[in-house]
Write a structure and sequence with these properties.
alpha/beta; TIM Barrel; 5-stranded parallel sheet; 5-stranded mixed sheet; 10 helices; 14 strands
């Protein structure tokens, strides 16, 4: 059975160290984080999908243009990663406005059609499938099936339905991206099995993430399920300058879990450490004969 690895990258101005959006972080992502990831993909001859926020693309359009020469997919990560614009807090018309604004910015810079979407912080609600359809998207990758660590993230209660989400890619329900249905949106879940297969967890628990990769490999060989790994270019930089650490939540429990504890854990193995670990995972799947696809290429080859 043919097996697929989908390298997906969320490009935003979020500072891991300072827990907020920063222009200084965006500039380091442009000058250091993105070049490091692109060079890794170039060396390993991998095509990847890059989800850009409209905000970072608007301020730093070269961050989008730099992925085009190597044939990577330009995808949308909403307009802003600020908490007030989280999709699970917005109604249908507000989501459409945010999605279309970001899509227009990205298509204007890249000169290509943008069909893939991932919600900032993976936060969605019942209006998101319809908003995606209305905004011209075909693919979503905001659901992480059977991921059980969501209590450490923002919007945790609204992510509980993902524990029952299908593991294989599926066309979503018109009122829930976590269920099969009859919408035109193909959901390609981020890989997880209790814990997520993402850059953050890879850096926090390298040995456990290697074990997870082995389990996902066996699942892929049995079922054909693609391995969808999520990483951020801001994990590939180290910020040493002085700044204040922001507090985003007034809720004491959410502040303790989703900010204080999570932020401290996320500081491990940043910069070259993240690149080294990621290279090992890419090599693991390359050695086992995986095809490295963009999301758009996967949809075209498998679902058309």
């Amino acid at each position: 059975m043919k097996t697929y690895f989908l390298a997906t990258n969320d490009v935003e101005s979020t500072s891991i160290r300072f827990n907020k959006q920063r222009n200084a972080t965006a500039e380091k992502v442009l000058k250091e984080g993105m070049p490091a990831l692109l060079e890794l993909y170039r060396q390993m001859e991998i095509k990847a999908t890059f989800f850009f926020t409209g905000e970072i693309a608007e301020k730093y359009p070269d961050i989008v243009r730099m992925v085009l020469p190597d044939g990577h997919e330009v995808a949308c990560h909403g307009y802003s990663h600020e908490d007030e614009f989280a999709l699970d807090r917005l109604g249908y018309h507000q989501q459409c406005s945010q999605m279309r604004k970001a899509k227009d910015i990205l298509e204007g810079i890249a000169g290509v059609s943008v069909v893939s979407f991932r919600a900032p912080a993976l936060r969605v609600n019942e209006f998101t499938p319809k908003a995606l359809e209305s905004s011209g998207f075909q693919i979503d990758s905001s659901i992480s099936s059977q991921r059980a660590d969501s209590f450490l993230s923002f919007g945790a209660l609204k992510k509980l339905d993902r524990l029952m989400a299908p593991r294989m890619p599926y066309y979503a329900d018109t009122a829930s991206l976590s269920r099969r249905g009859h919408s035109r949106i193909l959901e390609i879940p981020v890989s997880a099995l209790l814990v997520p297969y993402i850059g953050t967890f890879m850096r926090i628990a390298p040995a456990l993430t290697k074990s997870l990769a082995a389990v996902l490999h066996h699942e892929a060989k049995l079922t054909g399920k693609p391995v969808n790994f999520l990483i951020h270019p801001n994990e590939c930089i180290v910020e040493e300058d002085e700044d204040s650490v922001a507090r985003r939540s007034a809720n004491p429990l959410q502040y303790l879990l989703a900010e204080k504890l999570r932020t401290n854990l996320k500081k491990k193995n940043l910069g070259s450490g993240a690149i080294k670990l990621f290279r090992e995972h890419l090599q693991f799947f390359r050695d086992r004969g995986y095809a490295f696809y963009t999301l758009q290429q996967y949809r075209t080859d498998i679902f058309n």
